[in-house]
Amino acid sequence: MQSYRSAGLHVAAIMDGNGRWATRRGLPRCAGHKAGIRSVREIIEAAPDLGVGTLTLFAFSSDNWRRPKAEIDTLFGLLSRYLRTEVAQFVDNGVRLTAIGRRDRLPRGLAAGITQAERETAEGQRLHVRVALDYSARDAILRAVKAAPDPQTLTAESLLTLLDDSGTCTDVDLLIRTSGEQRLSDFLLWECAYAELYFTPCLWPDFGARQFALAIDAFRGRDRRFGGLAPVPAVGAANVQWPANAAVTAPQPPNPAHRSAPLMPAAGE
Ligand code: FPP
Hints:
six-stranded parallel beta sheet, 34% helix, single chain, 7 helices, binds farnesyl diphosphate, Undecaprenyl pyrophosphate synthetase, alpha/beta
């Protein structure tokens, strides 16, 4: 059975603010997408050393079809070029790349580029990069339920494996959204059930390795309870002041259905 957790943290990013970044500089919006690719490169490079095992990037939502055709075409062109130029480096650096979302509406060249990149990087063990393209979480959940051999025996865990064609989907530990917007926009709704959310005003093209490390630091400082109670300090721990009427309750083990990566990855992860 597939685990809910990945080796290392699963971090997802809604890479927002490319258009505003460009407009503020008097540039066409696509210049923002181009600059956004630099950020993608930086965080992919930084991820393994920060304890990240899986990185899911929202590159094109199913709602983005509402944008002008010229912007969509340029974005797809950038993505195709990115795949062509980056794959050799992914292979060298142990990065596996896969895509989630619908492929039937993508330009044929881009869909073929994804398939080729998936094939060439399949052995990558250091970092799994998942690019969400023509992606809608609601649509992904509906398709997964319909693909289940027997909906009556479907479990939270088996549904998770059906959400990604590669069968390697895990719960998201940390969801980052740049540009100051604070919503999920139909991204990984099932996988983010217990994700920590990190919103930053930084526009995506300005989000680099340093900002990424700050986000991971913030995550490591969060108290993840998965519906249970905060850990109780050991008896006799120095400086612990219990309120007079506090009920001292043993910490609850996490519900296995909410299993996720540990705050500190184990050695070797
Ligand atoms: C949202 O910003 C961003 C996108 C719709 C595209 C994201 C794509 C990239 C960063 C390009 C490369 C991706 C990969 C994986 C190589 P927006 O255009 O909505 O910005 P705005 O809200 O300021 O208008």
